[in-house]
Specification:
Elements (H helix, E strand, L loop, with lengths): L1 E5 L8 H21 L1 E2 L3 E8 L1 H5 L6 H20 L2 E3 L4 E2 L2 E9 L25 H8 L10 E6 L9 E5 L15 E2 L2 E2 L2 E5 L10 H10 L1
Parallel strand pairs: 1-8, 3-6, 3-7, 7-11
Antiparallel strand pairs: 2-3, 4-5, 8-11, 9-10
GO cellular component, one term: plasma membrane
GO biological process, one term: membrane protein ectodomain proteolysis
Protein name: Peptidase M12B domain-containing protein
Length: about 220
């Protein structure tokens, strides 16, 4: 199961921050989104592999980890490019390009934890899906990208395979791809997908692609 979270549904969401920044954000929206995109139809992303993914699908090898992510994102990009998002506006051909690939080959040490004394790549037995998403978004460098996506090999409760913040229908609200604002010290242009299901079984390649596509 893949799911999405609206920022305003988050208990940590600060509506006052949204109102305070709404006018500034709307004025800069087009400029900011274009700056992080390649042309007008390709969005820059950062793809991140945590240690569980490195040791799982990556087999403990950086090149295998990188190849797995690149092949996954190429398939996702092909799906997106062929979607007609709005036939009246001829809105199609949108896709992604990996601008940065970050691979964690070991767990993050305590001295590199975030201000809440946690890190999405810390050595930890279990994460709740929403807590991992929130922790992943604490990396301030993600502001430079349209989207930050975490590849993990963890099992989550309830059949969850992926989770991401999604945009609201209301213009200027927080969350989703190219979101530039922060709530509770987090970026909200983030998502994750897992290559392992709740029962601990590995996903098939096409299953993993569909999970990432929805995330």
């Amino acid at each position: 199961m893949c799911s999405g979270v609206h920022a305003e549904d988050d208990p940590d969401y600060d509506p006052g921050l949204e109102e305070q920044e709404r006018e500034r954000e709307l004025a800069q929206e087009h400029k900011a989104r274009y700056r992080r995109a390649v042309g007008e139809n390709t969005c820059h992303i950062i793809a991140v592999a945590d240690t569980s993914f490195f040791n799982g699908p990556g087999g403990g090898f950086p090149h295998r980890t990188a190849n797995s992510i690149i092949q996954n994102m190429q398939s996702v990009n092909n799906i997106y490019r062929n979607v007609v998002w709005n036939s009246d506006l001829h809105l199609t051909g949108l896709g992604f390009q990996i601008k940065e690939l970050r691979i964690h080959d070991s767990h993050t040490s305590e001295e590199d934890f975030e201000s809440n004394n946690l890190h999405y790549n810390m050595e930890r037995e279990h994460w709740e899906d929403i807590e991992l998403l929130k922790q992943f978004g604490r990396d301030e460098s993600f502001d430079k990208f349209c989207l930050a996506h975490l590849f993990t090999h963890r099992s989550f409760d309830g059949g969850v395979l992926g989770l991401a913040y999604i945009a609201s229908a209301r213009r200027g609200t927080l969350g989703g791809i190219c979101s530039t604002r922060r709530s509770g010290g987090r970026t909200l242009n983030t998502g994750f997908s897992s290559s392992r299901n709740t029962k601990g079984n590995n996903l098939l390649t096409q299953e993993a692609v569909l999970v990432t596509t929805h995330g």
